Amino acid sequence: MRDAAPQAIYLSDYTPPAYLVDTVELTFKLHPTKTRVISKIAFRPNPEASNKTFYLHGENLDLKWARIDGAEVKANQTELGLTAQVPDAPFIWEAEVEISPETNTALEGLYMSKGMYCTQCEAEGFRKITYYPDRPDVMGVFSVTIECDEKIKLSNGNDLGDGKWHDPWPKPAYLFALVAGDLVAHSDSFTTMSGRDVALNIWVRDGDLHKCAFGMDALKRSMKWDEEVYGREYDLDLFNIVAVDDFNMGAMENKGLNIFNSAAVLASPETSTDANFERIEAIIAHEYFHNWTGNRITCRDWFQLCLKEGLTVFRDQQFSGDVRGHATQRIGNVLALRARQFREDNGPLAHPVRPTSFVEINNFYTSTVYEKGAEIIGMLKTLIGDEAYYKGCDLYFTRHDGQACTIEDWLKCFEDTTGRDLSQFKLWYEQAGTPRVKVGEDFNDGTYTLTFTQTTPPTPGQDVKDPKVIPIAVGLLAENGNEIQTTKICEVTDEVHKFRFTNLDAKPVPSINRGFSAPVILERDQTNAERAFLLAHDTDPFNKWEAGRALAKDVMIRMVTEDATPDQAYLDALITVARDNTLDPDFRALALGRPSQDDIAQALFDGGQTPDPTRIYQVSETLSQSVAEAMQDITPKLYAEMAVDGPYSPDAKAAGKRSLQNSCLSLISRIDSGALAAKQYASSDNMTMQFSALASLLNVEKGEDENIAFYKHWKDDRLVIDKWFSLQVMSAKLSKATAKAKEMTAHPDFDMANPNRFRAVFGALAGNTAGFHDPSGQGYGLMADWLIKLDAKNPQTAARMSTVFETWHRYDADRQQMMQAALGRILNTPNLSRDVTEMVTRILEA
Ligand code: PHE
Ligand code: ZN
After folding, report:
1. What is the pLDDT of residue 400?
2. Which of 78, 193, 517, 724 could tie 473 with a disulfide, CB 3.0–4.6 Å?
3. Does residue 436 carry a pLDDT above 50?
4. Per-residue CA distances from 426 to 300, 354, 369, 410, 414 (Å)
5. How far is 286 from 317, CA to CA, in rounded Å?
6. In the beta sheet, which residues pair with residue 523?
7. How many Cβ atoms sit within 10 Å of the Cβ of residue 440?
8. What is the DSSP letter of 561?
9. Per-residue pLDDT tens for 59-84?
10. pLDDT tens, 474-493?
11. Cα(202)–Cα(283) distance, integer angstroms
């Protein structure tokens, strides 16, 4: 009954809505199990539609009555909606439905979290609240009345008092929001560039009021940044944020009423790490920036999701770069892109940034749509230049304000302002798969020639790919380390494309794809001597880091495949970087990082080998131990040098020092068996230092007392306890990981209905690569058991977590067979959701 037979929806089938909405009046009589929703909607026929069928979406709604222009009507109800006979002229639809927020464990539609009413409507949750044309190209002006005894009642737009709200900006239903509960606000205000005062509130439960200051500050900085950089001003007198404990995603950009996973907004020095602060700042910015890219201009249909998400991720990355430094932010973004998006793009779930079909749209809130979508915007900006980029954006904002748009609309703005044909560029939206770019070099008679050859491997449903336009930033260095060619963009448009650099004295050392100017995989024979040279001399900070990364990868691969010992040249290079005081501490910490075990597994697979996770784990441990030993003369000194005095501040500079300090700590712990970590644990006054110390201790199988004390001290802080749950599983070695995960599910604080807690355990199990892929197969079995359990409550989060199996094709026959069996068991579960059915089917099919 819960889900209809899965049916795919196609972009090519798009037709305009038959009826448009002018105004929507909603009255909510809130009750945990018997909420009444009364709707009054002004419809009119859409002159642009040929179809005249009046269809409203609706799921799990108990319809009490419906009227058209005041007269009771008998609607034809189906499982997913209703149809009715309507006049061929404007009319008023009224209806009353009953819903049960308390039993809504899917966290979509109207639900309850810790006694508080809240909503999540993107993408198709509004249809679980009332009957409505729940598609983003239907935009209406909403007025809302909330009736209940709760102290605080919130909805979109302006507060008319008494639980009444009015949002003057027409919006699609997915941006509707309602919150009611016993909340308190951290309040502030912002004066916009035209001098309008905006009241700002972050609403939380009473005990969390001390965790709002940083989020508020980030919000005000975001508002200012969008005015200064994009000329975008906020457009209501009020901006509310609410923190909710049970939430499937990070946060949601509902108009004037953003709803946040409490983990994505609440922060204090005592309870949050530097990484938490950084993420919170980025998410606050992201949701705020949606006000223009998403809300004022929205998507015509869900295939266009990247129109708002790719652009908004790009904008939040620009913001974070401005705040925290572009070099290290870029490195962090590329690390995440490779870990998630490349992994997706090179597996069975690969799909275009703008997909052409889906069964369940919730399954397309992916790293490809978000992060590769952002890379496309970055490439566009690189290709046309900054000035043309902002000019095109201005045209987009003026031309399409108030509209529901497509990728074609977006690109046309840049074609119109630059006169450039972007049809080849558009392939980035249409073709899945990570392009490979092979690099050939030739030096002859003072001319250096780079030959780029591009191919994109087949992906599900797309066997053949056309050449794309790829902006590859290149610089050249002379043998003495001097830069002889500053960064220049090579626009690769053909399958094989040559670029010449003339009047050179000798063969230069190239620095290719600087700043990671295109999201591609470079294929190039490069010696470790050249990598070490670039690590020492490249002026481009990204490629400097990249050279060290490539070196580390090569070392690890040779340790796995040739039983090589850790390369001394690599260890020497690390020492040089660590000592180099001209480099920022956060950069040095990133350069000391080693590729993850999942990275190595993918690299081995790409090289035609079958990765053995246990072996990769051992190599990773051996290398870490060698690094610790090789650096033991400098790490204690560096640790002391990086100490941050005074009260904790989450700023990038202080965070960078702590980051390098904690990199040192983790290496030192391998030498001193955790003595320094225990000291740091005991003396720390902030979560960054405390948690790193605990992690370093557990990593060397010490810290039993600290681990117990940590739990006792923080047991009432659910966000800290999420970290603790995750660390227990992450630090369990090999075959112990699954047993630990299982143990954590029996812990009194485990709550599978809370997505953060579920992810803390099972995200950590999947992230513990060797533990998850233990040859016994117990990791796969436990994961499948719990995904099945979770699916019955929360299909969206279960489906997202099923991606832990997307790499099954990399592994040996035994592991493949066990993973397929686990996936098969999930697929054979009675009443499996549409969400998980689609994901598991796609994972297995390829
Ligand atoms: N639109 C939200 C964001 O980017 C993500 C989201 C999607 C949240 C679906 C909830 C449900 O930021
Ligand atoms: Zn978003």
Report:
1. 98
2. 517
3. yes
4. 18, 10, 14, 11, 12
5. 9
6. 438
7. 13
8. H
9. 999 999 999 999 999 999 999 999 99
10. 999 999 999 999 999 999 99
11. 14
What are the tokens at 207? 């005990």
546 counts as catalytic? no
Residue 3's identity, in one-letter code, is: D
Contact 251/258 with Cβ under 8 angstroms? yes
**pLDDT tens column, 140-182:** 999 999 999 999 999 999 999 999 999 999 999 999 999 999 9
Instruction: List, for residues 633-647, the tens digit of each pLDDT value.
Output: 999 999 999 999 999
pLDDT at res. 352: 98
**Residue 235: exposed, middle, or buried by beta-carbon count in 10 A (0-12, 13-18, 19+)?**
middle
Alpha-carbon distances of 627 from 190, 511, 565, 568, 578, rounded to whole Å: 49, 26, 12, 10, 12
Average pLDDT over residues 25-54: 98
The span from the CA of 525 to the CA of 510, in Å, is 12
Tokens representing residue 834 in the block: 């549409």
Q: How far apart are the first and last CA of the chain?
A: 29
Nearest ligand, CA of residue 254? 1
* pLDDT, tens digit (0-9, with 9 covering 90-100), for 245-257: 999 999 999 999 9
Asked whether 252 lines ligand 1 (CB < 6 A), one says: yes
Burial-class residue 228 by CB neighbours within 10 Å (0-12, 13-18, 19+).
exposed
H helix runs in 673-772, sequence order:
675-683, 687-699, 704-714, 718-730, 736-745, 755-767, 769-772
Q: Answer yes or no: is the C-beta of 253 below 6 A from any ligand 1 atom.
A: yes
Q: Which residues pair with 260 in a beta bridge?
A: 243, 251
Tell me which residue of 714, 710, 774, 701 sits closest to 741, measured CA to CA: 774
Considering only CA atoms, which residue is closest to atom 8 of ligand 1?
Answer: 252
Position 345 confidence tier, pLDDT thresholds 50, 70, 90: very high
CA-CA-CA-CA torsion sign (734, 785, 360, 157): negative
CA distance 269 to 690: 11
The answer, yes or no, to whether any atom of ligand 1 lies below 6 A from the CB of 286, is yes
Q: How far is the CA of 613 from the centre of ligand 1 (A)?
A: 33
Average pLDDT, the chain: 98
Contact 345, 368 (CB under 8 A): yes
CA distance linking residue 586 with residue 268, whole number of Å: 21
pLDDT of 586-613, one tens digit each?
Answer: 999 999 999 999 999 999 999 999 999 9
Check whether 5 has a pLDDT greater than 80.
no
- Catalytic pick among 150, 253, 281, 287: 287
Q: Indicate if ligand 1 lies below 6 Å from the C-beta of 120.
A: yes
pLDDT value for 2: 41
Spell out which residues have Cβ within 5 A of ligand 2, the ion. Answer: 309, 312
Residue 456 neighbours by CB under 8 Å, 6+ apart: 431, 433, 434, 435, 436, 465, 468
Q: What is the dihedral of CA 608, 613, 614, 617, to 10 degrees?
A: 100
E-state strands within 493-605: 496-501, 509-512, 521-523
Distance between CA atoms of 583 and 538, rounded to whole angstroms?
A: 12
Residue 449 has a CB neighbour count (10 Å cut-off) of 14
% of the chain with per-residue pLDDT over 90: 99
* Ligand 1 contacts CB of residue 365 (under 6 A): yes
Asked if residue 672 has pLDDT above 80, the reply is yes
Distances in Å between the alpha carbon of 807 and those of 46, 128, 212, 514, 803? 46, 34, 39, 29, 8
Inform me whether the pLDDT recorded for 457 exceeds 80: yes
Residue with tokens 């994505």: 264
- % of the chain exceeding 70 in pLDDT: 99
Instruction: State yes or no: pLDDT of 1 exceeds 70.
Output: no
Side chain identity at 462, as an amino acid letter? Answer: Q
